[in-house]
Amino acid sequence: MTSVITGDIIGSRQQKSKDWVEGLKKILAPFGETPSQWEIYRGDEFQIEIKNPEEALLAAILIKAHLKAIKLDARMSIGFGDKTHNAEKISESNGSAFINSGELFETLKKQKLTLALRTGNLDFDEKLNLIIRLALTFMDSWLVQSAEFVAVAIENPKLSQEEIGQKLGINQAAVSRRQKRAQFDLVTNLDRYFRKQIKQIAP
């Protein structure tokens, strides 16, 4: 089982692309090689393969946090399944993970959602998407400072509040405030719950 995130930048046409394309490339670079593991295409769309499905939700939340930190956001669908064709470019690869991600992505705009997932297991998808939708009530409104905190905290899970503060150039009390404002404890609980659930359906 693998997972594929398909996304596009919301409101990209209102901004000069040079302002955010480089930022997006920097955000996606740690996910592996381009274009085999991630790719930006059609100007503002991107696709990433996250080989360990358990990492997929946190990866999408991390991308969201990085984008929010530069005053952008993305619509993203996460598809789970297999990979039957391994092309040089991820956008040309195929399998049920790609189909689930692509088909779901086409519906996000209509549903006015910025994040959803599809495994093909209807009960699982309904339950997890409801929880994600509830989490989006605060993740969609992260301001720059909250988003910066979330990105650093996800990328450095072992750091104390004090050490995160050093990275952000703020004191520990300010870190604590940002953590609360971002509802980060709920984010980590959501991630933990998702990992436990996906393990049960991953073959």
End-to-end separation: 7 Å
Classification by helices and strands:
alpha+beta
Q: Which shape, going by the Cα principal axes?
A: globular
Strand order of the largest sheet: 2-3-1-4-5
| Helical fraction | 40-55%
> Uncertain runs with pLDDT below 50, 5 residues or more?
none
The portion of residues forming beta strands comes to 5-15%
Give the H and E element order: EHEEHEHEHHHHH
Largest sheet: 5 strands, mixed
Radius of gyration: 16 Å
Q: Number of helix segments?
A: 8
Structural summary, described in words:
By secondary structure, the chain is of the alpha+beta class. The chain contains eight helices and five strands. It has helices at 17-28, 56-69, 96-111, 122-139, 144-155, 161-168, 172-181, 184-201, and strands spanning 2-9, 38-41, 45-50, 74-81, 115-118. It has a five-stranded mixed sheet, sandwiched between helices. A hairpin with a 3-residue loop joins strand 2 and strand 3 (45-50). The protein is globular and about 50 Å long. The mean pLDDT is 94.
Topology overview:
Blueprint: E1 2-9, H1 17-28, E2 38-41, E3 45-50, H2 56-69, E4 74-81, H3 96-111, E5 115-118, H4 122-139, H5 144-155, H6 161-168, H7 172-181, H8 184-201
Parallel strand pairs: 4-5
Antiparallel strand pairs: 1-3, 1-4, 2-3
Helix pairs in contact: 2-5, 4-8, 5-7, 6-7
Based on the model shown, name its key terms.
203 residues, alpha+beta, five-stranded mixed sheet, 8 helices, 5 strands, globular
